[in-house]
Amino acid sequence: MTTEQPLNELLRECADSVGGKNFFLTLAETIRSTREGILVGEKKQINYTSGTMTWNKTLHADNWRLLIESAKVRTKDGNILLPAEDKRHKNILNMIRTLKPLMFTVKPTNSADGEGFSFNALEVIDEKTTRVSPLFKAMFVMPMDVLKKNMG
């Protein structure tokens, strides 16, 4: 699984690793119906009908909101790091430093459904370029109808 793959291939591969498209979409719907308080709480886990998604870092509400906001930004190259002159540059840079190691792991309850998958929230390309990962956008931000279309 690489983020250089076309999104539809990446989504299909992830879906296959958790039991199929319906299980994957169930997880995405569960995420969207989860309140922010659960995501930024100490538990670091969301359960859905056929598995569990965990993450390795406690999230703070301000960084979480900034990450979601950054995931919605549409720039030509996908870079979320703003120029140094921008007043939000420092906040985004701090969020990137804090959330760079953030990784989500999805595991199906039944091992026969697949091995699951992991993905980082951010892709740090170099010191001037950071993108929100396509899987993060798909799981947390992309409208469900667009997600379904991308899965084919």
Describe the overall structure:
- It is a single chain.
- The chain is an alpha+beta fold and 152 residues long.
- It is built from seven helices and six strands.
- The strands form two sheets. Strands 1-2-3-4 form a four-stranded antiparallel sheet, covered by helices on one side. A two-stranded antiparallel sheet has the order 5-6.
- Helix 1 crosses helix 2.
Summarize the structure.
The protein is of the alpha+beta class and 152 residues long. The protein has seven helices and six strands; from the N terminus they run αααββααββββαα. β5 and β6 (129-132) form a beta hairpin.
Major pleated sheet: 4 strands, antiparallel
The overall average pLDDT, rounded, is: 92
Low-confidence stretches: none
How many helices does DSSP assign?
7
Alpha-carbon distance between the termini? 18 Å
Biggest sheet, spatial arrangement of strands:
1-2-3-4
* Rounded Rg: 15 Å
Shape: globular
- Count the E strands: 6
Q: What is the quaternary state of this protein?
A: single chain
List the main descriptive attributes of the protein structure presented here.
single chain; 152 residues; alpha+beta; 7 helices
